[in-house]
Every structure is written in C-alpha cells, then in structure tokens.
Amino acid sequence: MRYETATNRADERATADVLEPVWHCKLRRLPPLSPVDYYAERDDRLVALVEIKCRERPLSAYPVVWIDAHKWWMMRDAAEGFHTRALFVVRCSDVILYCDLESVDGAPGVRTWVGGRTDRNDANDRDLIVCIPREHFHTVPLP
After folding, report:
1. Using one digit for the tens of pLDDT, what is the confidence trace for 15-24?
2. How far, in Å, CA of 117 to CA of 49, rounded?
3. The domain at 6-60+69-106+134-140 falls in which architecture?
C-alpha cells in the first residue's frame, strides 16, 4: 500500500522550497513510486539525491530518526553510481535536519532493526529500518 497523500507532497515541496536557497540548487521531484523523492541540480548537474520526511511533532519527540532500509540501500547505491550525495532530510514542527547517508554509514549509534507503524493494520507497514541518532544531523534554519 502507498500512504503518501497530497498533503505529504505539499509539505515535502514546502521543505524543498526552504532548502533550495540554502543549498543554492533546484530540487526537482522524481515521478511517483520512485525510490527517492527529489534530486538536486545546480548548473544543470546532479549534485544530490534527496529524501524528505515531514513530521508533525517537534524534534524532541524523536530520540532517533529512521529511514526505511530499502530506501537507504537504493539511495546509497544510486548515489555511488551517479557519483553524487544521498541526503536524508527530516522536517519536524520546529526544525529541518539533514544528513549525508554516506557519512553516517557505520557511525556510532547507527543501527538497523525492525520497525514501522502498527496503527494502520497493514502487516507490510513494518520493515527493516535504519535508525540514525539526532547528533548525526545538521540543522537548516527555518524561514
């Protein structure tokens, strides 16, 4: 099942709009069902693959930030093949954070486990996830 909504896409786009002037690039959305949300381009060159997750609560509600392990693998493999970066962005209600997946691979506290949501009665909504401690993220100022 796919749970992404028009509101999710709008929140991701709003986050991309904040990142573009900070990162001096254009973030372009990839087609639906792509393994990555956006790619970043500067001067007609690919500079990063970007996954954006938007959360409704403040950062303090999350002791770790997680990304689906399959998405992690796809982004890391694609970034290596394209000689670019794989950036994971998380927007909470009070902050935008990002990390380069290559820089946190094997870093202290980063671990893989089984997780996901249980409130939707979908057995497929639990999978391998990569948990990344918050200290591995950089902060982007909110507008």
Report:
1. 999 999 999 9
2. 25
3. 3-Layer(aba) Sandwich (3.40)
Q: For tokens 């254009």, what's the residue?
A: 26
Whole-prediction pTM = 0.89
Joined together, the tokens standing for residue 1 give 């099942």
How buried is 121 (Cβ within 10 angstroms: 0-12 exposed, 13-18 middle, 19+ buried)? exposed
Strand order in the sheet with 26-29: 26-29, 38-42, 45-54, 85-91, 96-100, 138-140
Contacts of 25 (CB under 8 A, 6+ apart): 40, 41, 42, 47, 48
Handedness of CA 16, 22, 28, 30 (dihedral sign): negative
